[in-house]
Amino acid sequence: MRSNGAVGEAASDELTALLARLGELADLPTDPIADGGVALVDQIATLERLRGAVAAAQHTAMVTFARSQVELQAAQVAAGQLDPRAVGRGIGDQIGLAAHVSPHVGSRRLGVARVLAEDLPAVRGLLVAGRISEQLAEHVVAQTSHLEPEQRRLVDKQLAGAGLEDQGRREAEETVKKTAYEVDRAGYVNRGRTARKDRRVTLRPAPDTMSVLSGLLPVEQGVACIAALRQHADSLIATGEAGDRTRDQIVADTLVERITGQKTATDVTVELEIVLPIDALLDPDSDTPGELVGHGPLPGDIIADILATTTAKTWWRRLFAHPKTGCIVGGESKQRFFDGLLAKLIDIRDHGRCREPYCDAPIRHRDHIRPRRAGGPTSLSGGRGNCVRHNNTKEMPGWHHRVIHDGLGDHPHTVEATTPTGHTYTSRAGP
Predict the structure, then answer these.
(1) Mind listing the pLDDT tens digit for each residue in 164-191?
(2) How far apart are CA 264 and CA 228, in angstroms?
(3) Range of the domain at 227
(4) Residue in 218, 215, 223 with CA at minimum distance from that of residue 196
(5) SS3 217
(6) Residue 150: other Cβ atoms inside 10 A
(7) 299 lies in a domain?
(8) Local structure of residue 314 (DSSP, 8 states)
C-alpha cells in the first residue's frame, strides 16, 4: 500500500497532466464546424460540471492540509515552541498564497470545505458530480452557518432531493434559504437581529478613477435612504433646478453633500495623496499619469480636473523616486519605529495595501522585514506595510521573509516570503 505522501505526489502528477490537456483544448482553433457544433455543446456542459468537481477536489486537499498543519502545530505546542492560542493560525494564509487569493478568502474557502465535508455530505456529493456550482455550495454553507451540526445535516438531507441541479441560480438560492428557515425558524430570526450589529460603511476602488461607497444597513434604513435621495432628485428635476444633471448624478451628489455637510459635492476638503512624476510637474501638457495612493493611476487630465474643482488646500512634499522603476527610494531613518514621514513613504510605496502576496487588506502596521531583534534596519528598504493578520502570522514557526531587492537600484523593492512547507512567494512594490 502506498503512503499518503506517495498518493499525494501521484495525484499532483495527474493534475499537472490534466491541466496540460485542458490547455490543449483551450488552444484548439475556433473555426466554425460543419455540424453546427453539436459535440461542442456537450463539451461545454461537461466542462461546466468539471468546475464543480475541481472545486470539490480542491476542498479535499484543503481539509487534508489543514489537518496536517494542526497536528504539526500541536506538536510545536507540546514542545513549547508555540502558544496554544495560535494553533490554526497561518493555515488559511498558506492556502491563500497557493490559490493566489487573499488570506481572508483562503480561510473562507477552508471553512466552506470543512462544513461540506463534515455536515453537508449530500450537497458535497452534488458538487463532486458537477451537478451544482461551487457558488451554490458556498451559498448553502452561508445559509446554514447559524445552525447546529445536527440541524445542518437535516437541511442537507432535504436538499439532496430538492432538485437543486435543475433549478436556476435564484430559484436554487431561494430553495436553500427556505429549507434552512423551516429547520430553525427562531434561529433564522435571531440571525437577522444579530446581523444588524454588523452594519457598516466601506469604500473600495472602481475602474476609471471612481470608487464604490457601500453601506450595509438594516433593510428599512437602506430603503429609507435611497427613497429620500431619489425624492430630492425628483423635486429638483420637477422645479428645473437639476440643470444638465441626470437623476442618478443628483442622487450621488446629494449623498456626498448630506454626509459631508458640503454645499456642493465637489467642495472636497479631505486630503488626497496624489503622487506625480517629475515630468508631469515640469510639463503641464505631459500625458504621464500620476497615482492616487490606494486607488490606482490617475491620468494627468483627471488630476487637473480634481485640482481645479476642489477647494482643498494644495501643498507639496518632496519624494524621491528611482528614474527607471518609478518606486519611492527616499526616507531612510535610524529610528526604531516606522512612523512620521517614513511610515507615509512605506504606505505610498506599497500603495496602501499589505505587502504579503495576494493580500488586498489595507496597511495597519509598518514592520521590519528582517526582525528588529535580528538586526533588521528601520529603513524604507527594511520595512513593509502589513495588515494585522499578516503581522501576526509572520511570527509563526516556519515563516521567513527576506529582502531580495532593496528598491534603490534598477529593480523595485522585492520581498520573498517562505511558508512552513518551504514554498516561496514574491512581492514587488509597484511604481
Answers:
(1) 999 999 999 999 999 999 999 888 778 7
(2) 18
(3) 200-260
(4) 218
(5) coil
(6) 9
(7) yes
(8) P
